[in-house]
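[[Encoded backbone]]
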Amino acid sequence: MTDILIITNYFPPETGAASNRIFHLANGLQKHDFKVSVLTPLPNYPTGKIFDAYKGKFKYTSTKNNITIHRLWIYASNSKNKILRLIAMLSYSFSLCWYFIWNKLPKTVIIQSPPLLVAFTSVLFLRSKKRKLILNVSDLWPIAGLELGALKKNFSYKLLEKIESFNYNHSDLILGQSNEIISHVTSLFPKKDTFLYRNFPDFVAPKVSESTLSKGKLKIVYAGLLGMAQGIYKLCQELDYTHVQLHIYGGGAERDKIQALIPNNSELDIVYHGEISRDKLHEALISYDITIIPLLNRIYGSVPSKIFEYARLGLPMIYFGGGEGESIIKDNQLGWVAESGNYSELNNVISKINTSELNLKLKETIKESAIKNFDFSTQLDMLINKI
């Protein structure tokens, strides 16, 4: 049995794509006879507050699915203040350093990036010819920060670029969840060993039946983080509701604004459902006609994991985020595409959707495509051969 350590900023009971991705990876490796341990902060995402069950703890160790989970102290914050966010990252980095000093570590370590500083701390302390470091890159920072408007090209940006290069250079294998990420890494380090590791889901999808097909208005659903990058608040204001009803699940920075918007604008046909567990969410999602996957701005390297999860559910999609995600939707015939940020085109695309096409046959076809092209087990087997 091979020991392997995963260092991540997100892990259940936290919700979201990053948490799910790392949990499925850890669980999959454990099923393949790896002895898996995880280093992660005390749960705090996306609220920026330590979850009640973990308050007052400096470290908490537990076991789930034969995975040992070490939760370390963090100064939790989701503040827009960059100084406070930096302090939060540095606090977790400090906890990691303390852990590295006092504990024996496996020879194989998977490090999640971003956050860049956490990845940098891990790579800096753990790089060794006797240890294999695997960097799992889910988004390209600092490029993504620049495109989101969170960063500017100044001294800090150049410093982050140097940190990014250091992380790539001193990793033995780099996993990228998009072809754009792989291309970026190899443009900097042409000889670097890389592997395309998508965020494929690992769950049994609920059965879709004719009874889940709605009548009347087209029921569109968004489920996920209500953050600045997704732009759901703006989407709520820009949609044409003549023949559309929008349903929203999730939480995040824009939640309060969306909740305030709905009762004061009766012409906006929006239903906010709050946050529910992932299993219950899957059951709820299949009752809608289509789902929408938006990004406020096209982000180089980003491929929303919702594409693969919703395909497994057999849910037709409208993709409104640009980049590599568009090609995945088109190539696998998973739904419709509208130009990122172009709300007129989005409304035009929606208006042309023939509701008679949103039938059981379409949903089953999408599920079959997901099983064939987005199989978690096949991808994991290929990764294990690289480790």
Remarks:
- Residues 82-102 form the longest helix (21 residues).
